[in-house]
Amino acid sequence: MENWRLNKMVTIKQALDDEVACNEWFLPGNSCCAGCGLEIALRWAMKALGPNTVLVTPASCLNVVIGLWPKTAPNFPFTNMAFAAGASAATGISEALKAKAYRFPGKNWEKITTLVFAGDGGTTDIGIQALSGAAERNSNIIYTCYDNEAYMNTGIQRSSSTPHGAKTTTTTLGKERYKKNLPAIMAAHEIPYVATCSISEPLDIYKKYKKAKTIEGCKYIHILAPCPPGWNYPSEDTVEIARLAVKTGVWPLYEIENGILRMHKKSHPLLDPSKRKPLIDYLSRQKRFAGMSEQSLIELQQNIDNDWKMLASRLHAQES
Amino acid sequence: MVSDIKKEFLQNKENKIIKGNEAAAYAAKSSRVQVISAYPITPQTTVVEKLSEFVDQGLMPGTQYIKVESEHSVMASMVGASMTGTRTFTATSGQGLFYMNEMLHWVAGTRLPIVMAIASRGPAPPWNIWADFTDVLSQRDTGWITSFCATHQEIYDEILMSYKVCEDHDILLPKFVAYGGFILSHTSKPIIIEEQALVDEYLPPLPDEKGWPHIFIDPERPMMFGNLIMPSGFYYEFRMKIHETMMRAKEKIMIAAKQFERMFGRNYGNGLIQNYKMDDADVAMLIYGDLAFQMEEAVDQVREEGYKIGMVKLRHFRPFPVEEIIEIAKKVQVLGVMDRGTAFGSPTGGPISSEVKTALHNTEKTAKILPMISGLGGREVTIDQQKDQLKILIKMNETGELPKDLLYGTLWHGKLEVK
Ligand SMILES: Cc1ncc(C[n+]2csc(CCOP(=O)(O)OP(=O)(O)O)c2C)c(N)n1
Ligand code: SF4
Ligand SMILES: [Mg+2]
User: Do residues A151 and A134 lie in contact, with contact meaning Cβ atoms separated by under 8 Å?
Assistant: First the structure.
């Protein structure tokens, strides 16, 4: 298998001492927009998982950016899937791999990682039933929600992951309701591993996928993946905006392993609200929030604070 | 006193008195299916229960049974499992089948040889759980080979034949095996469960390590499946190929039926249709599913009165046996086509009778066709009623006149009188 290598990845090699991670598995030449957060998320997940992985992707941007037939950017088995069917199709694959392992023992069929990469629509809306089913069954998959906070494929319509106040083509005055907290919902399923990531922390993505790969059962990883056309900001700002999402507390980074919550080192200090950067620093960089009312801003801040309170109380309960 | 056949039956341990649904489960077991995924719905439930029992008791070693949370997920997980290169089986009914619709197209487009038993029931509302083939017939254009069973034994046999046809590398298409809810699913009859060694010999081997020839999940051979294709790409040709393959499957269905008869001694006509007392018939009824089984008795009784009447049991709806139907329509004077299902607003209102009329288009000197509908939503159809249906055809032949009381050309038989 001929793999693309990035020439100047010395730093990754030094940082990770991982030959696989020096390779690109989601190849250049794909048709992501400039500054696409999703692309960073997938590249880093694949650096951790390597090519012994099969990826299932329901209808989303990712269905398109992989390239039009007969071109294709993923250099590993990749299956497009119906919008609602990411988790269920992946379950079928992982169970069939077990059946194959039974019939062809010693060939490591069971060692193949079954990965889902679905958008927030495919996860928090139409795919939530199948995902909940897979979680309750504890299907042996890694399910990823790459969250660009709207239906981007179909032209920036609201999803239940769109935050309060954000304008989309179906919330032209800004969304009234709040972002659905899917990591919390997944944690409530008591699956062995739930994690949040931001594309501004690629090494964190790498580590979390490395860990997920070793865990048997259903793993859920939710990655905030900013989207320049959808959020309406200059494409060079993607990483900075994702970083601000972490620093303002909009997007807390953590993992819940076998029920134990651990905050990421960049998010942990933000349990203290005074350590968080002002919310406006994040919002003002994106035109989707332009013209948001004072009242809306307060409500969004309250919504974010409530999420933090939930995390804090969970940590507190763990310690006592 | 026990007759010889009964004695033989009682002595053989693998022969059982079981329900139609259990016959389907036994067929899946005999076929050594590797992945099952299912969601319960009346009247299919006992299929999934029986399979659970088999798997839990270790009678299907290596088989993975996925208990999903909906039918959409049933078919999605079947897609994943079949793509990975395993033999797969599931079962559903009515609403469950409708819920799968998106994935049914997906399966045929992926060319996966998934076999699904369907204990057919009437679509809601109002809620109905009894025999009515509108569920499977309404999935007409999903690209699934579609067959009907008339007897308990045929459920078992047809599922075996299905794997033979579907997994043929020249075909690779999915298949519905439909039978009437409750009438077959929940009644018991003696069924022969064939010896495993014979079934193994009859069926194609399970997919090898490389999986299917056209699709596989294998990091050694990374494959992209299903990405967007422009109108100038091969989408059109892929679709055409599905139709072409479906038509070609006719021959494979016939071969599978012939080989089945040679191996197990049970005859299913040419596989596509099965004639009953058609040799000298000048009037005939084309009918499918469990109603066909009972119709044999009605034909016998009407024949005793001296009428030359016969019956054609339609075994496959997709691919549609056009040549066979033309041949029959050229042979008899009057052909009734009995539907237990509806196709609202179609030429006749009946899914099969509309097809028959289409099949005969441009063929000269064919029988007069009388589209008929009976037994919707499990409405009882007695032998006396079936005899009456046959006599309507006989009268049509004698007088050359259509019966009165037609609704846009179709006879809805056995309806309640509304005052
Ligand atoms: C059953 C079904 N309904 C609707 C669609 C249309 N559709 C395709 S992608 C998409 C939105 C995807 O949004 P998301 O999951 O957030 O992924 P993104 O495009 O934002 O990356 C929609 C509505 C579809 N393909 N299938
Ligand atoms: S629309 Fe957004 S998510 Fe989709 S490819 Fe472009 S940047 Fe990426
Ligand atoms: Mg999205």
Answer: no
Quote the pTM value. 0.95
For residue B418, what pLDDT is reported? 77
- Say if residue B259 is in the same domain as residue B300: no
- Give dist(CA B91, CA B136) in Å, integer: 12
Give CA separation, B61 vs A12, A197, B225, in Å.
45, 40, 30
Q: Is B209–A97 a contact, with Cβ atoms under 8 angstroms apart?
A: no
Identify the domain containing residue B24 by its residue range.
Answer: 2-264
Distance (Å) from the C-alpha of residue B40 to the closest C-alpha of chain A? Answer: 15
Nearest CA to ligand 2 atom 5: A32
Task: Give the number of domains in chain B.
Answer: 2
- Could you tell me if residue B221 is inside a domain? yes
pLDDT at A2 over 50: no
Report yes or no for ipTM above 0.90: yes
What is the distance in A from the centroid of ligand 1 to the CA of A146? 13
Kind of pairing between the strands at B309-314 and B283-287: parallel
Is residue A62's pLDDT more than 70? yes
CATH of the domain at B335: 3.40.50.920
Are B283 and B393 part of one and the same domain?
Answer: yes
Q: What domain range includes position A126?
A: 2-319
Identify the closest residue of chain B to A85 by CA–CA distance.
B76
> What pLDDT shows up at residue A283?
98
**Cis bond upstream, residue A163 (ω within 30):** no
Best probe of the B interface among A25, A69, A110, by most B CBs < 10 A, is A69
Quick check: B126 contacting A, CB < 8 Å? no
Taking contacts as CB-CB distances below 8 angstroms, the residues of chain A near B224 are 66, 72, 74, 78
Last residue of a domain, one of B218, B238, B264: B264
A8 exposed, middle or buried (CB, 10 Å; 0-12, 13-18, 19+)? Answer: exposed
**pLDDT value of position A4:** 46
DSSP label at B142?
Answer: G
Of B245, B264, B283, the position where a domain reaches its end is: B264
User: Quick one: pLDDT band at residue B2, thresholds 50, 70, 90?
Assistant: very low
- Tens of pLDDT, residue by residue over B233-249, are 999 999 999 999 999 99
Res. B1 pLDDT band, cuts 50 70 90: very low
User: Looking at residues A245-263, what average pLDDT do you find?
Assistant: 98
Q: Is the CB of A149 under 6 A from ligand 1?
A: no
Q: How many CB pairs under 8 A join A and B?
A: 165
Kindly report, residue by residue over B263-307, the tens digit of the pLDDT. Answer: 999 999 999 999 999 999 999 999 999 999 999 999 999 999 999
Question: Would residue B104 count as lying in a domain?
Answer: yes
For the Cβ of A59 lying below 6 angstroms from any atom of ligand 1, the answer is yes
- Beta bridge partner(s), residue A168: A171
Closest chain B CA to residue A64: B228
In this structure, what is the dihedral angle of CA atoms B319, B321, B322, B326, given to the nearest 10 degrees?
-170
Share of chain A above pLDDT 70, in %: 96
How far is residue A203's CA from residue B88's CA, in Å, rounded to a whole number?
Answer: 40
**Which atom, in ligand 1's list, is nearest to the CA of A38?**
21
How many structural domains compose chain A?
Answer: 1
